[in-house]
Each structure stands twice: as structure tokens, then as C-alpha cells.
Amino acid sequence: MEELLPETRRALLHRIATVQAEGRAPALVGAVVRDGRPVWLDARGTVHGQRPTGDTQFRIGSLTKTFVAVMVMRLRDEGLVDLAEPVVRYLPDTGAKLRDGVGRATAHQLLSHTSGLAAEAPGPWWERTPGELRPRLEDVVPEGPAPHPAGRRFHYSNPGYALLGALVEHVRGEDWAGVLRREVLEPLGMRRTSLKPRPPHAEGWAVHPWADVLLAEAVQETGRMAPAGQLWSTAEDLSRWAAFLAAGHPDVLSADTVARMREPAAPSDPGTPASGYGLGLQTTCVDGRQLVGHSGSMPGFVATLWLSTADGLAGIALANATSGLAAAALAADLVAVVAEREPRIPEEWRPLEDVDTRLLDLTGPWYWGASPFVLRLKADRSLELQPMDGKGRGSRFRAEPDGTWTGLDGYYAGEVLRVVQSPDGRVGHLDLGTFVFTRKPYAPAAPVPGGVDPRGWRGASH
């Protein structure tokens, strides 16, 4: 494990020690990942009389949803699932409740919690009751209309992820947990993540609100609802998961697809405007730092993984207490401690190995009407278009085999940048999603939509 500075390590230990003591957690494990590598792990409290380690399993609750989302995105990348299609298309032989009702929600809406479905399954609380109470897929969905119209707002739905788990099973023809193990966990080396606990694992506890005593929490097999929160994992395995969520893995999901999952796909809840949701991943902003990941809780356990791609850091917190411990805040704090004490060192600048003069000819000032922009060529042959005053729309662009560029971020994300040649074969202008950029502001005869006044620029007296 790569070492952090002693002062940083002590600050991290102080943070988890404070949270464990004040939150009265029987056991707590914290971990930090930097640039895809674990750099710190420590624990407080005991499990079976021993200090927990990075190999001790804890139940991770809704962090399970991130794994289910990855399996769905694999199906999408293979062309087996269209995220824009109603999920019922992939769930044959279901009852009318799904065919005519909530099954009309799309996989994209289920992933982003914009399906409008109810937050919980019908009947007694699913987290505390056996899955046999809901043997059929229809049993996880309440009767009657959904609380909200599909696609209108963010509304967290655990049954929605039960449907996504069933989607994986129907398309793959195999239990979702088996698909997860073969397609995701094994390629990533996550051998200590499982549907059921495996020793060494922590017991789940409730802590009395007014006395320092414990009550054991029962572990239920949640059946059809398992994709919403059943998994167990370790700090070491979740460190591998954090590295994957930052950069993807060639045997699981590409970096581009994982980046799409991290992007907000649902509007913020009015009550928590700093928070949002991507495709299976929560997003939040803490003290100006953008974080993505997920929190989780089940009776007796809380867990959180937060990733800051800008800092190249992830924080992980696992504890075995039902309530009273802010695991989400702790994971964010672990990221902040390292980011502030040991800020990321930028990659060395290196020039291009060889220069393509055609690309070099594209660089420099361009004008959208009278607004000046500058186009830069980067060492990886990508392009960057930014307004000269730093205000307005700018984006980075990836080169494509056909000679165009695709926007990667900002206003022009996903838009196509084309170079249009003049009759003499030289660079004429840029076409960016029908926006025309020229070398001079409103030059005579420039191909500006609507034309340019032939009298050209002139003073106010004319």
C-alpha cells in the first residue's frame, strides 16, 4: 500500500476515531483510494473481539444498486437492452400490473429513479422481512397508480431496482447474483463481495439511544428485493470498486460508459439541491467538491463510497450500526482530508511526438459572430474550444476516425465539430452543431447563417 504522509494518516485516524466514538458504532472501517490504488485503511471497534480489517465483510445496502446498474449498462453496450424502451419489453410472462402499469417505465428511468414508482415494496418493510412474502415480481410493486408520472421528477425507488435485477436475469437467463459474480466481481478481483455473508463478517447491531447497550439485528434474505440492497462487501473490495468507478475496466465497462453513469441523469430533489442521481450512482457537492458514489443502509449496517474524479480520490466508510453514524459525511471527510493535505500532483506536460500541420492550422482565434473563442490542440490530439474571456460555452473534443470531433463536456457534450474547407482547399470555418465559427468576426461573405451585412463594420455615424 502506497504511503500517505504521517500527518495525513493521523488526521484520517482521528476522523474515524471521532466518528466511531461519537456515533457509538460497534465497529467501523475507513479507507482511501488515490488514483486507483488503496493508500490508507484503518478501523476502530471490534468484531468477535478482534479489530476489523479490510477483509471483514459488512452489509453495504444500497451500494448494491451500483453493481446492478453496471450489469444493465453491460447489456446496453452489447445492444441487448435499449434504455429508452419500457422495461416490460424485457420481462416476459409478467402480470397485468407490470404490463399495463409500472412496467411501462424505461430502464433509463429505473436507473435514475425517475420512473415515478413508489419508494418501497408493499406489505411489511422489505428490509426486515423474508423475501418469501414477495415471491413474484409483481409482489414488489404496490397496487394502483404510481405516485408520480414517469420521467417528471426524481423519486428514489427500491422496487425499481428489483425490476432491473429481474431484467438482468431474463436477458441473461441466469440469476442476477451469478451474472454479477462472473461478469463483474471476478474480472475486478472482488472475491469478498457476495449475496450472503462469509466469515469474517460483522454482526449488525442497533445501539440504544439512551444507553451504551446493543441489540442484535436479524439478517433477512430479501428475495426479489435483493438487487436493491442485499450485498455484503469489504473495504478492500470496495477500494477496487472505487477504482473501477473512476476509470472503468476493459473486461467490465469502458471508461466512457462509466463516465456516462456518473453524469447527473435526474433533476435534483428540491429538498437537497446539491444532490442528484446518475445511472445507478448518487451525486453530491460537499464544500464545493463534486462527489459521486452511493450510500447504503440495512438493519444493523451503514456504508458509503464517495469518489472525487477531480482529486483522483475515493473515501469508503463501513460500520455495523443501524443509525446514529453519518457514514456519508465520513466518506466525504476522508476524501477532503487527503485532498487538502496532499493535493493531486498534475501530470507532467509533454508536447506532441509529431505535429500534424492540418491540426495545427485549426488552432488559434475563432469567432462565433462577434464573440472570440480560442481553439487549442492538446498533446493527446484532442481539441479544446473556450471563450477568450472565460465566460460562456466551451468544451473538449475527441477526434473521431471520420475526421470530425465529438464534444466531451460542457454545452457541446455529444455535439459534432466539423471542419469545412473553403473552395481553395484550406480551412474555411468550423461547424459545431450548426453554429458557425469563422476566422474573423462577421467577415464579408462569411458563411454565417442569415448572411452578413455587405457594408461590413462601420462607425455609428454611418
Automatic annotation (TrEMBL):
The keyword Transport does not apply. It comes from the Bacteria. Residues 16-339 form the Beta-lactamase-related domain. Residues 355-439 form the DUF7586 domain. Coiled coil: none annotated. The keyword Hydrolase applies. GO terms for molecular function: hydrolase activity. It holds the Pfam family Beta-lactamase. Keywords: Hydrolase. PANTHER family: D-ALANYL-D-ALANINE CARBOXYPEPTIDASE, D-ALANYL-D-ALANINE-CARBOXYPEPTIDASE/ENDOPEPTIDASE AMPH. This is Serine hydrolase. It comes from Wenjunlia tyrosinilytica.
